[in-house]
Specification:
globular, 336 residues, Rossmann fold
């Protein structure tokens, strides 16, 4: 248990790392003491803005730093995180957890040796709509995800499965809570040396199904999530931060009987009756919730302060990475 702010640093302050650093600086749970980046000019400019130290070598971090965000390229995650974890520094590592499952296992082992908290930056877990859906404790039967983005020049060290699709793979694994029994994947490279578009059908041991599509070669962005269960249908649009839940309404049984015996020569019930009585349509109020990255970092800092398991622990990051690897291998085997 830590009383008061946690002494923190952010390692890697490129596009995403700058956001991490600013959120650390604003969060009352954190006392940001340093930013680290191999680009001295970039580190210096941000450190000047935030009033902390600028470092170019992670080995120069003050020994009293208790927790860090690691936002370096994926290929450097293991080399940066392992020494810190072994000395007991709590780490929030941006997704994917590592470049390979073998590296992920080494990171997990280092966290265990150092008795350090290890959280993975699967930020979609902290989307306001997803947080409310998880609280409903629904049992998913079918999930459909679309994550499409225009081409950018970031994260080109990994393919679209590890760059974008892995977000939805993590969400689905968390919600379904069952091993993947089989999968059928398709995709290929369009603009880079790795796959830029991917689609997969997942079949789980408990009978659930999921269709997941990701692209980084689209003209318009799309981030949509739909989940069907025996209790409800949920639709979320992450772009618009909008969600709706449809359940059986107060006149469900009456409506089913009426529609089953409906005589087309008589006047049909109005759509308002279907929507308001046969069904229960609830738009989710997401206005009072934190932005995802703010919520993710606050959750990590709270776990450190209160000495509890992070919401997205290292094991979950490993599971999402292993599934992403499996999908990417199947796509590469097609030799598109």
């Amino acid at each position: 248990m830590i009383v008061g702010p946690v002494t923190t640093a952010v390692i890697g302050v490129g596009h995403l790392g700058k956001f991490h650093a600013r959120i650390h600086n604003e969060n009352p749970r954190a006392a940001l003491v340093a930013v680290v980046d191999s680009n001295a000019e970039r580190a210096g400019a941000l450190a000047s803005e935030l009033g902390c130290a600028a470092l170019t070598d992670v080995n120069a971090l003050p020994r009293d730093v208790r927790a860090v965000s690691i936002v370096v390229p994926t290929a450097q995650h293991a080399s940066v995180a392992i020494p810190l974890l072994e000395r007991g520094v709590h780490c929030l590592i941006e997704k994917p957890l590592a470049q390979s499952v073998e590296e992920a296992d080494r990171i997990l082992a280092a966290a265990e040796r150092g008795r350090a908290k290890l959280a993975v930056g699967h930020v979609e877990r902290f989307q306001p709509g997803l947080r409310k859906v998880r609280a409903m404790n629904l049992e998913p039967k079918f999930i459909e995800c679309h994550r499409l983005a225009p081409f950018s020049f970031r994260a080109l060290d990994v393919g679209v499965v590890h760059d974008l699709m892995i977000h939805d793979l993590d969400l689905i694994l968390d919600l379904v809570g069952s091993p993947v029994e089989s999968l059928d994947a398709a995709g290929g490279a369009i603009l880079t040396a790795s796959e830029d578009v991917a689609s997969v059908r997942l079949v789980f041991a408990n009978g659930a199904r999921a269709n997941v599509t990701a692209s980084r070669a689209s003209l318009q962005p799309m981030r949509r999530f739909r989940m069907f269960s025996g209790e409800a249908y949920v639709s979320l649009d992450f772009q618009k931060n909008y969600g709706v839940v449809i359940r059986k309404g107060p006149e469900w049984e009456k409506g089913r009987a009426l529609l089953a015996n409906f005589d087309p020569t008589t006047q049909a019930p109005g759509p308002e009756w279907i929507r308001d009585r046969v069904l229960s349509v609830e738009e989710l109020d997401l206005s009072d919730m934190d932005r995802p990255l703010q919520a993710e970092i606050d959750s990590f800092l709270r776990a450190v302060q209160e000495d509890r398991e992070p919401e997205v622990p290292g094991e979950d990051g490993r599971a999402a990475l292993a599934l992403a690897d499996r999908i990417a291998r199947e796509i590469r085997a097609q030799a598109w």
